[in-house]
User: What shape does this take?
Amino acid sequence: MNARRLGGLITKETLQILRDPSALGIAFILPLFLLLLFGFGVSLNAEHVPIGVVADHPDPTTDPLVAALRHSRYFEVRPLPGLKMARDLLSRREIDAILWLRNDFTRQTLVNAPASIGLIVNGTDANTANLVEGYVMQSWMIWLAQQNQVASHPLGLPVALQFRIWFNPALRSQDYLVPGLIAVIMTLIGALLTAMVVAREWERGTMEALMAAPVTMAEILAGKLLPYFVLGMGGMALSVALAVFVFAVPLHGSVLILALASALFMLVALGMGLLISSLARNQFVAGQIAIVVTFLPAFILSGFIFDIRSMPMAVQIITRILPARYFVSILQSVFLAGNVWSVILPDMAMLALMAVFFLGVTLARSHKRLD
Amino acid sequence: MAEPAGADALVFAGVSKVFGAGTTRITALDDLSLAIKAGRVTGMLGPDGAGKTTMMRLAAGLLRPDRGRVHVLGEDITKTARAVQSRIGYMPQRFGLYEDLTVQENLDLYARLQGLAAAARPARYAELLKLTALGPFRARPAGKLSGGMKQKLGLACALLRVPELLLLDEPTVGVDPISRRELWHIIDGLRVAGVSVLVSTAYLDEAERCDEVVLLDHGRVLAQANPAAMEALLQGRCFKVTHPTMPRRALQQTLLAQPEVLEARLDATSVHVLLAPDIPPPEIAGAAWQGVAAQFADVFVDQLHARRPARAPVAPVAAMAPRDHAPVLQVAGLNRYFGDFHAVKDITFEVTRGEVFGLLGANGAGKTTTFRMLCGLLPASSGTLLVAGQNLLKAPAEARRQIGYVAQKFSLYGALSVAQNLAFFAAAYGLRGERRARRLAWAEEEFELGPFQAMNAADLPLGYKQRLALACALLHEPPILFLDEPTSGVDPLTRAEFWQRINQYAANGTTVLVTTHFMDEAEYCDHLLLMSLGASLAAGTPAAIRAQAASADNPDPSMEDAFIALIAAHEQTIRRAA
Assistant: This one.
């Protein structure tokens, strides 16, 4: 590496980044947009779920149960006169669930026989359906506890369920979506942007002039790597700042670990971008490949939205070769759980291995020639 | 620094280079051997696909030969590419400039890449900016420079560290004539300084400025010699033919019908003829034959003829269709803006039936923009625009059948065969039944496409692509034909053949509108509009335009001289107005 030539290449790249609104847009506007969208717009929580309550015989025993639901922030309770009407509303999606207290409910409760309640949930949206089931169970438990206190003798269930949620006690979906999103954003900057800018050099014929100059291929690659590394870390810093200060996502782990893991992942993403650009020499194709092999998998298969453990085994195996998977895991740990070394160290090791692999293959594949 | 006189700057020994694989293999260089002497300016000429760019890239170490050896400045380029690259300068076809970087920033980048010491830079920058007259534009982004200025900046970037060998790949294509002349002044200066220069070009007149010329065709060397010596070999075979009554174009057609005439070109006042060797001029009543010196185009045509099947005799034009001088195209006060860029400035002209009308100018002069507005592909910002009495942008699709359009680079479907392309265009123009069959048969026969019917358009030789594009545009027998730079990159024989066809169609009543950046093609047009930077410089017959530029020292100027004089005058008018 010759400092003068490398300096020339870095200066050129920096000037291009500063003058090209699309590069700065992908690095800073896109993260802002995605974070706002996912932070405020998309929520995987079920809140204010409209639920219809059909009590065949409303009386003092059923009222506390309805009240428990009413006080929960998860539900919007609509008392309904009959099951038929409730079914109609459910099929029109005006309500998402029906709680049916049959006419023998109070009697069964009082004689201490098993009292069953009917819960009908719209399963079209499986995620919401599961949540509704859980929330109703929770309200049901609260009601049981109250009944236990009121009655002199214990009622119904022999086991009292204790419900605690760890790591994200408030169950806010932002808290795990936002850290995961950072991995997606970094993939975009690292792989997509880099693949496109190298392809642009091919398209505009400047790559030919660079290659005819007495520079080495390593210098050309480093001249791309360093400026986009800085740009990507800038986008990363912006995303973390937004996560912590705007979305109030707790950061339990160390900032240093976060920076180190991000730097490793940035190298992996840049490596993938450069490798793609050595295969595709026009911006359209490079962009398509980058989106299909880096961005979409990072979005769907990294565990950022969908839990990897609930994927079919074959897909789970595929996720093991996805760099984003390891980075999402590190991010979620560092943000929500703290420095959990047993998670962070193996994940970092995988990232380091992948960075060496992608950058190494790129360097080995790149020749200072056009053929 | 320079190699000792007589040494070879560049040696190709048995070099072959093949691109692609399987059925799409293209042999770019075919067992090519040649040596280029140090300290000279060597020109490389050949049509597109002859292998010029491949040779340049091999010499710059950007490609690896499949077979054979390439020695540059005494070193094997495949072994010591980077060492050689620090001793050569290379300007690729698109100049290799970063468009969003300024002139100065581009120079800085290449100075660093070429390892020019910081202390040496200011003096070298000053020298180069003076040489290229780019001094006032140091802070301008390269993307906002004119074609000529980009070319000079590209050259300056290749010259930062004085190279021992300079490789220039078609530096002058599409560049205005003034910039072309300036570039050649710079090259002459380098020759004096002892730099070896290899320059490829599509302009035959530029060959005469070289110490030696290499003629390439299909990846092989046709000839390599001093241009004057090559021309001298054609002594006694070139004539200037005039006729007291026959119009020049008719005379040209008559001459081409003679088997002993290899080529007949229109020049300023007569027809320039090249005869086959050892044959006396044919008898044509009334024609006066005057022996003249050969031009480089004659050398090229002669070389190509020796290697290609004889030209099919062209049927002379039966009779000139009566010219009624009805206006077919009327353009008045035409303007077009792209944002705040004034691409076409207040253009006015009229074309009558059966006329060949040329729009002449460098890249960026506004020819293609004007064209697109005429064809209804682009709305005009202001002005009136009538094609056969209608504005094609607003007229129904029916009106578009009046025109045939051949776009730049021939918009053919590369993955479709010749027959499929023709069938598609026949369907697109709504040809059916007997008429469809008749026109398809006509296209095959007229353009000799028979043997190529099953070949994909992308794989056709350039000359045949041009024929196919023309065939597709003419299938529906349009009365008006638009041709956008149809002769760019094709060899002189193909160009001559193309113009012959165009003249035939015009003689039969088709109105032809054509753009070109070859000044010598102006003579084939009945009327011309010379454009520069969106504005009209002059309009009229070629003779009238040349006469405008006649002066005491140059009483008989060429079209290029005229163009340069008119640009200079135009710039003065602008300056006076400002």
